[in-house]
Design a protein that fits this description.
The protein is mostly beta strands. Helix content is 12%, strand content 39%. It has 2 domains: 4-35, no CATH class; 44-139, Immunoglobulin-like. The chain contains 1 helix and 9 strands; from the N terminus they run H-E-E-E-E-E-E-E-E-E. A 4-stranded antiparallel sheet has the order 6-7-5-9, with no helix packed on it. A 3-stranded antiparallel sheet has the order 3-4-8, with no helix packed on it. The two termini are 44 Å apart. 14% of the residues are buried.
Length: 140
């Protein structure tokens, strides 16, 4: 039967081996808690926004199609994507679960839900001028 000391030594050797494989550990009250550092980290640069003009409405108002894509090279899934969007508005309905202005300059993508790696959400809006849209924050 192993002693507490032998168990502790074995545990630390195992933690050292796992740490050498990229795992990160936090020790709390003598208990090691692993965090998988192989999980991909992400940034605002992993979300790409593209806009293209589309045919105008019958009344002549210009329309644009917007595509917001998760292009994270390390395979990360990204949520709570916020876009700097000024006073964004549209003469046609934009599905608020896809893109919604919360406040001046703050629009939420995909209702805050995860946009999986490699996926794109898109919407069309109608407005006299094209809105400059840029990612302001994300959660990994």
């Amino acid at each position: 039967m192993e002693t507490s000391f032998e168990i502790m030594v074995t545990l630390f050797l195992l933690l050292g081996l796992l740490a050498s494989q990229g795992a990160i550990f936090f020790v709390h009250a003598g208990i090691a808690i692993a965090e998988d550092s192989s999980k991909a980290s992400c940034s605002e640069k992993d979300i790409e926004i593209s806009q293209a003009p589309t045919p105008p409405l019958p009344n002549g108002i210009p329309t644009y199609t917007v595509e917001i894509s998760n292009i994270c090279a390390s395979g990360c899934n990204i949520s709570n994507i916020h876009v700097s969007c000024g006073w964004f508005s549209s003469a046609i309905l934009v599905n608020p679960r896809i893109f919604k202005r919360l406040l001046y300059g703050d629009c939420l993508v995909n209702n805050g839900s995860t946009l999986p790696n490699g996926r794109t959400v898109s919407f069309k809006y109608a407005q006299g001028l094209r809105y400059p849209l840029s990612v302001s924050s994300v959660n990994c």
